[in-house]
Amino acid sequence: MSENENAVANGAEQAGAVGQVAIQKIYVRDSSFEVPNAPMIFQEQGQPNIQLNIGQKVQQLAEAVFEVVLTVTVTCKIADKTAYLAEVQQAGIFSVSGFDQPSTHAVLNTFCPSNLYPFARQAICELTVNGGFPPFLLQPLNFDQMYADQMRRRETAGNA
């Protein structure tokens, strides 16, 4: 092998050392839909008030294997009465290897929920339609920005 070929081969080996993420499975861990004031709520007039809560939980299942659960809760109220409550726990099992600890943390909190969110979004939409309400379409979220903001707040709180 020439020197150039050796340099390319060494560069390829080093590039292969870059971290890898693989999606093993995506599934609905739990979902619920409640219409506590049915059927009277369908007669209510007024502008709906929507509250959206998003959370996530990460659990290590094995070495370099993690379950990430993204919880999306939507509460809709009309005239101070709950019209519906929809909640989906969208989960995935991810293999995450070749990263240092901070990078693994970032991948689990950005890449993984970004991949789960479209499934949760679809599930929420289907639940609301099947519950007799207009489809509720969650807006896209930037999990990278949310993670950066969270890390900034932690750093600020740690310095205070």
TrEMBL record:
GO MF term list: unfolded protein binding
InterPro entries on file: SecB, SecB-like_sf
GO cellular component: cytoplasm
Keyword terms of this UniProt record: Chaperone, Cytoplasm, Protein transport, Translocation, Transport
Gene3D superfamilies: SecB-like
One Pfam assignment: SecB
Location of this chain's protein in the cell: Cytoplasm
Main location class: cytoplasm
Keyword Cytoplasm: yes
Family, per entry: Belongs to the SecB family.
Record's function text: One of the proteins required for the normal export of preproteins out of the cell cytoplasm. It is a molecular chaperone that binds to a subset of precursor proteins, maintaining them in a translocation-competent state. It also specifically binds to its receptor SecA.
Subunit structure, as described in the record: Homotetramer, a dimer of dimers. One homotetramer interacts with 1 SecA dimer.
Entry protein name: Protein-export protein SecB
Species classification: Bacteria, Pseudomonadati, Pseudomonadota, Gammaproteobacteria, Lysobacterales
Gene that specifies this protein: secB
